[in-house]
Structure formats: structure tokens, C-alpha cells
Amino acid sequence: MTPRRWAGLALMVGACGSLALTDEGAAFLEIIEPPSTTVAVGDTIQFTARTLDRSGAPVEATVRWRTPDTTISVIAETGQVVGRFAGTARVQAVTGTEGANLEAFIASDFFTVTVTEPQAPPGTAGISR
Question: 3: which of 27, 29, 54, 115 is 20 to 30 A away, CA to CA?
């Protein structure tokens, strides 16, 4: 799958014309979606991100993952998403400092994750105990 990039956005006083950098030197956040964004309840999928400098070279920076939804759980440090309840949810990657100090902050668009009910093992459909 082709990676998608987001540029750093910040209120830059006196720095017009230059791309904002996070406090760790990232200018871009690149996301690689998993092959499928559908997961069964209790299963996991993995989102991957990397941070890049102004020239597009990888740079070490902290990426955190978050969701405003309860349909999934996301491990902030790794991007692993766990389906909790059937439905849809959103997940987003962020890097930089978010807040009133006006430092650069990069946030991806939200990615939609569909959570399905677990499938019954073959040959067990309709069997109850």
C-alpha cells in the first residue's frame, strides 16, 4: 500500500516560508495502512508510521496513536488496534507537541476501522451448547 504523508502545521511567527518542525525535528508524518482495516472483535491490526525531516529522510521522533471511539482500543506507542465491539471507529497518528505553546504538531487524518463480530469456526454455525 502506498504511504500517505502529512506535513507539520504550526503557527510560525517570523518563520514564514519554512515548513514547521516538531521539537524532535520531524516535518512529515508518513502512515502505512494495514492491508485491511477490518478486524474481528478480539483480533488486532497494525498501523505503521514514521517521521521524516524536511528532505524526506527518516528522523527519530515519537509517534502516538489515538482514537476518540470505544469500538476499538489502540496502543498509543505501537499503533496496534484491538477490536472491542462491532461497529466502526477512527484511529489517528500524531507527533510533536499539541497545546498552547505553538510548537509544531503533526496529526494524520483519521483512518476508519471496521470491527466485525468474530466468525464461528467452520462446521459450528447454528450449534449451541
Answer: 115
Question: Each residue of 85-125: pLDDT tens digit?
Answer: 999 999 999 988 776 454 678 888 899 999 999 887 777 66
What domains are there in the chain, each with its CATH number?
4-11+18-116 (2.60.40.1080)
Measured distance CA(77)–CA(48) in Å, rounded:
11
- Give this prediction's pTM: 0.75
Using an 8 Å Cβ cutoff, are 92 and 108 in contact? yes
Non-local CB neighbours of 14 within 8 Å, separated by 6+ positions = none
48 half-sphere exposure, CB direction, 13 A CA radius: 8
Q: Measured between alpha carbons, how far is 104 from 12 in angstroms, rounded to an integer?
A: 9
CA distance to 5, 17, 40, 61, 65, per residue, from 36 (Å): 19, 38, 11, 26, 18
- Distance, in Å, from the CA atom of 67 to the CA atom of 83, rounded to the nearest integer, reads 12
Greatest CA separation for the chain:
70
